[in-house]
Amino acid sequence: MAGAPVTVNSMSAKALETHDGLFFKQTRRGWFQECFGCEAKTEFDIATIENKEHNVFYAIEDTDCCIRCICGPCRPFEMNLHEQNGDGPLMARFYRPLRCAAAPCKCCCFQELQVRDAQGNEAGATVETCYNCVPQYNILRPDGSVEYKLSQPTCCGGCCVNICAEGICNCRIPFYIFAPESGTDGKPTGRIVKVWSGLTNELFTDADHFEVAFPEGAGAESKARMVGALFLLNQLHFERSQAAHQHSDDGYEALHD
Fold it and tell me: Are the C-beta atoms of 94 and 115 separated by less than 8 Å?
């Protein structure tokens, strides 16, 4: 349903509890239509960190062509998360409402991705926060309290992205997950990292790869919220419009690529 928040099936979501990390492989779905400037549906095959060839989950965007053509990377969308290769039970639905583009010094209309359980109860969200230079996000519990903070590593007093945080010349773009009490200056408890997906993918498609390391002790619902955070980050920072690379955060990717 368009306009509905993310729905997490509490029974199926327990499959996430057995994994300390996941490897997300965005497919080349719709590469031909992207050559003509039309955004394709986002699709992920999801494997484990230990065996990146064995897919355990599958995610597919549910939007129509008009929304993708008109709004591009800023579009509202739903993502459906399934076990196995799409034939398994539905685990979650992630919904991103239409908001103003991510930008520093905003006071309202923040980017967000919402979550609810199968009974319609709120199960949390990932929400953009007010920031000055480097984008920051809060991962929220159902009651609205901050469960984790999410930000790229910084340097120069928080004014710049630290492009050497994951090493030099390895094409890794990290977003670190922090406990709320430590803030983004503390020690990361987990991470979402965009990794090199191959020369062809990087140059000619938006088919990115990501590694997710969940914080120790995170439960199934917490992990579902972090999966949703990855989907939001992918749309905001790594989905490029073929017609015009107008999103300001594309500069972060260019620095690393």
Answer: yes
Q: Please state the φ and ψ torsions of residue 6, each to the nearest 5 degrees.
A: -65, 135
Strand-strand pairing, 112-117 and 7-8? parallel
54 by Cβ neighbours in 10 Å (0-12 / 13-18 / 19+) ranks as exposed
> What are the φ/ψ torsions at residue 182 (nearest 5 degrees)?
-90, -20
CB atoms within 10 A of CB 106: 16
Predicted TM-score (pTM) of the model is 0.84
Strands 209-213 and 21-26: antiparallel
pLDDT digit string, tens, across residues 136-168 = 999 999 899 999 999 999 998 888 999 888 888
Residue reference for tokens 């960190």: 49
Q: Is the pLDDT of residue 57 over 50?
A: yes
CB 178 within 8 Å of CB 137: no
Task: Name the residue among 1, 223, 6, 10 with its Cα closest to residue 93.
Answer: 6
Give the HSE-up count for residue 209: Cα atoms under 13 Å, Cβ half-sphere.
17
Beta bridge partners of 177: 150, 190
Whether the CB-CB separation of 27 and 40 falls below 8 Å is answered with: no
What pLDDT, in 10s, does the model give residues 84-141?
877 788 888 899 999 988 899 999 999 999 987 655 567 889 999 999 999 999 999 9
Separation of alpha carbons 45 and 56, rounded Å? 8
